[in-house]
């Protein structure tokens, strides 16, 4: 019995020792932490855009619903009501975006950081940073918006007729189910951006 207890004690000690070594090995070095922080800094604009999109998407849906509901408002009050709603939604987007952005930036090191540590070694992180800093990458990033706009405009031009027809059919079907007289069908989007309140002035 004493022999078995001694074996168990030694085994437990070895497990603890190996566990401590594994934890030590898993902890990134100071140099690697610095590289990860630099990668996260390059990613911050994307992180902030993600946070804002999470707020703008439900706000856009709310604006679309409000646009339909405005048809029930008396014509002489419709414009003022629309402006008031837009101001309320814009205020919500600005305030909620700031809160969400700050939280996203705060969470990134503990969420994305460990993923970078697991998937990339120091040399790979250095290569990644070199790519972020390269003139080729900067040139490509500058073209990103132009390429998206060009494709979006072409897509809208090609699909406008098909989308408007489907929207009209859907609107008529919904109105029929509700027993309502159908309102004029909404038109297809004319820009590549989602329908959101104007927020350009709020960007920093």
Automatic annotation (TrEMBL):
Name of one Pfam family that matches: DUF2059
Residue ranges, annotated region (Disordered): 176-204
Keyword Cell membrane: no
InterPro entries linked to this entry: DUF2059
Residues passing through the membrane, by range: none
Signal peptide: 1-22
Compositional bias (Low complexity): 188-204
Tree of life domain: Bacteria
Domain (DUF2059): residue spans on this chain: 114-153
Keywords: Signal
Protein name as it appears in the record: DUF2059 domain-containing protein
């Amino acid at each position: 019995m004493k022999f078995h207890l001694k074996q168990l004690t030694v085994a437990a000690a070895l497990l603890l020792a190996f566990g401590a070594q594994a934890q030590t090995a898993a902890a990134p070095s100071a140099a690697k932490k610095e590289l990860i922080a630099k990668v996260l800094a390059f990613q911050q604009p994307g992180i902030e855009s993600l946070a804002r999109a999470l707020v703008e998407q439900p706000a856009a849906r709310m604006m679309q619903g409000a646009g339909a509901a405005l048809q029930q408002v008396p014509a002489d009050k419709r414009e003022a009501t629309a402006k008031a709603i837009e101001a309320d939604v814009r205020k919500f987007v600005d305030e909620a975006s700031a809160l969400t952005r700050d939280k996203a930036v705060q969470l990134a090191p503990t969420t994305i950081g460990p993923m970078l540590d697991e998937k990339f070694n120091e040399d790979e992180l250095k290569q990644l940073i070199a790519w972020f800093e390269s003139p080729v990458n900067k040139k490509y990033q500058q073209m990103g918006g132009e390429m998206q706009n060009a494709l979006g405009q072409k897509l809208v031009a090609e699909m406008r007729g098909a989308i408007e027809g489907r929207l009209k059919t859907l609107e008529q079907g919904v109105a029929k189910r509700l027993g309502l007289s159908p309102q004029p069908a909404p038109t297809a989007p004319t820009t590549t951006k989602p329908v959101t309140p104007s927020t350009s002035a709020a960007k920093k």
